[in-house]
Amino acid sequence: MSLASWMFKQRLPASARSFSGTDMLIILVSFVAVHWLYLHTLEFSTARSIILFSVLGFSYVIFAGFGLYRSSTSQFLHQLIVRLTIAWFIVALMLSLLAFLTKIAVDVSRVWFTTSMILAYVLLVGIRLVSGAMLAIARMGGKSVQSIVVIGDSDQIEHAIDRLQENPWTGYRIVKVFADGWRDTEGSTAQVDKAISQVHAFIEAQRQSDNPVAEVWVGLPLSEQLLIQKVLGRLQDASVDVCLLPDAFGMQFFSGAATNVAELPVVNISDIHLPGSAELFKRMFDRVASLMAIVLLLPLMCIIAIAIKIEGRGPILFRQHRYGMDGREIEVWKFRSMSVQENSSEVRQATRNDARVTRVGAFLRRNSLDELPQFFNVLQGRMSIVGPRPHAVLHNEEYRSQINGYMLRHKIKPGITGWAQVNGWRGETDTLGKMEERVRYDLEYIQNWSAWLDVKIILMTIVQSVSGKDVY
């Protein structure tokens, strides 16, 4: 299959589909650039300003109405371009109508307006073509592909397997099929429980081998509600999304929520992700902000490193393995604040008046300065500035079986600071209730993410770090 064919069959991921901010920037730049080239000035008349702001407003509303920014429904690249073309034509008609009704058409150059609209359209289509080409090239090379596990013994499963094998451009790759054990012939639940345990064990093995499973597709009839709930409940402590392949009966309930993957209706029943635009924003913000923080704080970090070496022997940095996005193990860096290094099978959390904490370490922990090396983790792409705080591997394994949805906090990158921490759930978690509250805030953050929430958390973190209250 040629690259061109692959391009137009790409089902753009959420981060590529969420073009709203980029689209508005393209339109703005197009109109301003043509205005400057045509009139050699950046001063806009009242009439041209009305047209400029109107085209931005009309475009956003109409593009959204045409589903160009919809992340819950799968769309192919050629479908997006067709919708974009129709939507842009409607924007042009509405602008023309506005200019006629308000009688500002006589004050607006037709050459400027027409050239700006054409340039903006070419760039709007172009960025989608470039995204499709990059995605097609990546998938041809086996990258940007999500691994899925399929379970069930219905006809829908066989159909799903055939469809995905015939359409590799979807970006999904089946790594395992569990088709046996979903009908208990012995009159007990032992056989089904065994089948679910096998699925869980496979997912864990894949995660530990750094090849995590992204989604589990369940091909069970909707009438098997109790069985579906059991599967969902058992996989809550795994960092995977559980999706349902509804049968003909189930489609009447899920038609609006289903994603179309190679003509397969897929319903994510455990989805807890940031929107694609949020992932893109956070990725860009993290890289820029972490680089700025490192440059500004480098003198302070050098002073801290010298103080740690002067106080006693031992490494400057404390390195510990923790779980990152999708449950992958990452190495997290902190300034060493204790006289001992604990990254083994027995990890004790710091407590008030802990004898292991050094004098320099106590100051660092009280002001959250021991976390500064994690800006390098953010720059590497392992962490985010804001997100659920990463826990030691031992603590993850301890709590994942005790707290429902615990591993879902790993559906995004861990953060230097988080919503749970600024709400008082930082430090020692010596009871199950404390960890449950921390997890509840972590999941609440993911479900209610906004750029303002990230800014709010950062500001609250700075204030709390300066006050140094209840930190040890």
Structural overview:
It contains 17 helices and ten strands. It is an alpha/beta fold and 472 residues long. It has three domains: 3-140; 146-268, 3-Layer(aba) Sandwich (Rossmann fold); 276-467, no CATH class. Helix 3 runs antiparallel to helix 4 (46-65), helix 3 (20-39) packs across helix 6 (110-140) and helix 11 (276-311) runs antiparallel to helix 12.
What descriptors fit this protein?
disordered N terminus, six-stranded mixed sheet, two-stranded antiparallel ribbon, single chain, 472 residues, 3 domains, Rossmann fold, alpha/beta, flat
> Could you describe the largest sheet, including whether it forms a barrel?
6 strands, mixed
Low-confidence stretches: 1-17
Roughly how many Å is the radius of gyration?
A: 26 Å
**SS strand fraction:** 5-15%
Strand elements, count: 10
Class by SSE composition: alpha/beta
The number of distinct helices, counting runs of at least 4 residues, comes to 17
- Helix amount: 40-55%
Principal-axis shape equals: flat
- The neighbouring-strand order within the major sheet is 2-1-3-4-6-5
